[in-house]
Amino acid sequence: MSIQDNIARIRAEINRAAVESGRTGTDITLVAATKTQSAEAIRSAVLAGVDACGENRVQELTEKLEAGAYLGAQLHFIGHLQKNKIRKVVGSADLIQSVDSLSLLSAIDRVAGELGLTQNVLIQVNIGRDEDKFGLDAPSITAFLDQAALHAHIRVCGLMTMLPFEIDRVETRHLFAQMHQIFVDIKDKKSYDNIDMEFLSMGMSADFADAILEGANMIRIGSTIFGSR
């Protein structure tokens, strides 16, 4: 099937899950995970209606920016961001989804300040306590946000998570539900000028429908759009 056909099928599944969870498909932001994909394939995905493109690697991001691959969609950085590469991402990415430490947050804030802008970020949470994944432990989030509120050139727009591989659907739904409850609790209880719990980014090709059913409003889809790498 073509990229356009794949996205149409995904949109239909998004709408079904959204309606079941009391929303509509327009409430869900579809991020195309574009790691290793060509500029031509990315342009096809943008033309077919993805809301944003998500890159994992800084070098790919800069090369594809120069090629105009993302024109017409937002650009998100969704991979682990090393501090020595921050300057290539801040101001280029509309949203950095993978802030996983206070030192990284502070470095992004410093660069954003030097550039005279405010960088939108999500806080990455390691909800499954997976040693192979980055992110904060759930109990650390409140203290982290207290510190994030002191950074003038950062806007925290929500939370992101990646689940451990090889867990069953029951555990998947359970962890997604935990993330949603954390998201709601912060939204209800925290009030900072630069923190707005707008996005809950969770769910990928294998589990995005379950993520939506449990409250996600942003999903990151790669292979189901582009095919296996």
Description:
By secondary structure, the chain is an alpha/beta fold. It has one domain: TIM Barrel, CATH 3.20.20. It is 39% helix and 19% strand. The chain has 8 helices and 8 strands. It has an 8-stranded parallel beta sheet with strand order 7-6-5-4-3-2-1-8. The chain is globular, with a radius of gyration of 17 Å. The mean pLDDT is 95.
- Give the number of DSSP strands: 8
Taking the alpha carbons of the first and last residues, their distance comes to 15 Å
Q: How would you spell out the order of helices and strands?
A: HEHEHEEHEHEHEHEH
Number of domains: 1
Q: How would a crystallographer describe the biggest sheet?
A: 8 strands, parallel
The CATH superfamily name is Alanine racemase
Arrangement of strands in the largest sheet = 7-6-5-4-3-2-1-8
CATH architecture tag: Alpha-Beta Barrel
Low-confidence stretches: none
Which term fits the overall shape?
Answer: globular
Number of helices: 8
The amount of beta strand, in percent, is 15-25%
Q: What percent of the residues sit in helical stretches (DSSP H or I)? A: 25-40%
Q: Which structural class matches the secondary elements?
A: alpha/beta
Q: Which characteristics define this entry?
A:
8 strands, single chain, 229 residues, globular, TIM Barrel, 8 helices, alpha/beta
